[in-house]
Amino acid sequence: MQITKVIALTILVGLGEALVYGQAAASPQGDIAQRIAAVEACLPPPVVVKGEPKTCTTLTKRMEELHVPGLSVAVVHNGVIEWAKGYGVRQTGGDAVNTDTIFQAGSISKPVAAMGTLHLVQEGKLSLDADINTKLTSWKLPASTAAPGAVVTLRELLTHTAGLTVHGFPGYAAGEPVPTLVQVLNGEKPANTAPIRMDSAPDKEWRYSGGGYTVMQQLVIDTVKEPYPQFLHDTVLAPIGMSHSTYQQPLPAALLTNAAIPYNGDGAPVKGGPHTYPEMAAAGLWTTASDLCRYVIEVQNSLAGKTNHVLSQSMTQQMLTPGKGDWGLGLSLGGSTADKWFSHGGVNDGYEALFVGYDSNGDGAAVMTNAQGGSRLASEVMSAIAATYGWPDWKPVERAVVKVDPAVLARYVGVYELSPTFSVTFTLEGDQLMTQATNQPKFPVYPESQTKFFLKVVDAEVEFVTDDKGQVNAVILHQGGQDHKGVRK
């Protein structure tokens, strides 16, 4: 459960100048200014309680509360980037964020990298459904006792169904030795993550794996025989106009002059500055909110058969076909039949971001931040954009509170272990049940039934489970479409 500390501190927040990229005849600049003002004036909470007054907070205030120094926003409307704007500063006491300020995109690196890989599939250089080991030359995925005789395919890597380990990567601070990609794959020093291995049968379940995308990176390198950043520049970034984006790791010094500097959730700079990510496909993209919107527009246009700079219409349709976990080939998918959307979030050390695009109505947006906890702000900004532009999704979740006897609440007090290093503790303060995750602050939870509770600070629920004797022995955390079980200690 990702819960970020809220600290009310005053920072310099520059509202900046909005850059109006394009507009339809029905959307004169005055209307765009009104929409920008509406977004800035009212960021709704992620969860609203039925019967309570509706509230919202200004963008400036939320940046202060969440201690986010810098923010970049771009909005797509009717198939064009209607506006983009920077807020706050690249670093405390430094220059203001502008529309060309680059941020680390975290896991948003994955869908952009996936587009490049699918281009190779389109050219017949790779297959979605062949054993990846037939094309890997610098390294091979070892056989696994967890799935004897099983092979992994590129389709499974892209959809997070390959059964591979390693969720994500912490990167390497300035001055630390950076491993080669093969060292990362094998978990060999100086790599700071475990070996990437198959620990369950492929295509059995959806389980997010940055490790799988790192294997994909090696697969592409072995296929194209050129540096990975160059391949993605030539194949994806340049053709679709992402001119302020790069997969170069570490970032060249010349590009640092307008790069956002990363911060922790407590307002302190990330030690060592921007981390280096040799796992480029999984976490290595530097970009802007406007460039992410150019990616959104390319997907929309390619799907409609209008422009196909990287992928054909049929390949884009495959990319946006949902599989296990409502996941496509590199993208999270959702929405109704009439209003389908594609999306991805990203978290690197001190950078958090989110983008959304609708398949067919020409709308979307991207939000980038330079602070831990920025995902909360990005989600709230996205909700404000959704409300302003009349999107059918990305609205606050409404929940109802019910009455629960304090004696029942007392049964839930305890520590629940989700992993050897991560637990959630529940305490009772008066008649209020509180929750606190490892290394995170304490928050109240509110009952929506006798066994199910929700948080207001994030869209997350906790459900208590009893054994056959009626004893509370576990909790299930529901968040982001995933369930995580914690066993009572």
The CATH superfamily of the largest domain is identified as DD-peptidase/beta-lactamase superfamily
CATH architecture of the largest domain: 3-Layer(aba) Sandwich
- Low-confidence parts lasting 5 or more residues at pLDDT below 50? 1-15
Total helical elements: 12
Can you walk me through this structure?
This protein is α+β, with helices and mostly antiparallel strands. The chain is 24% helix and 22% strand. The chain folds into two domains: 103-389, DD-peptidase/beta-lactamase superfamily (Beta-lactamase); 400-488, Lipocalin (Beta Barrel). The chain is built from twelve helices and 20 strands. A hairpin with a 2-residue loop joins β8 and β9 (351-358). α1 crosses α11 (374-389) and α3 (109-122) packs across α7. The two termini are 18 Å apart. The model is unreliable at 1-15 (pLDDT under 50).
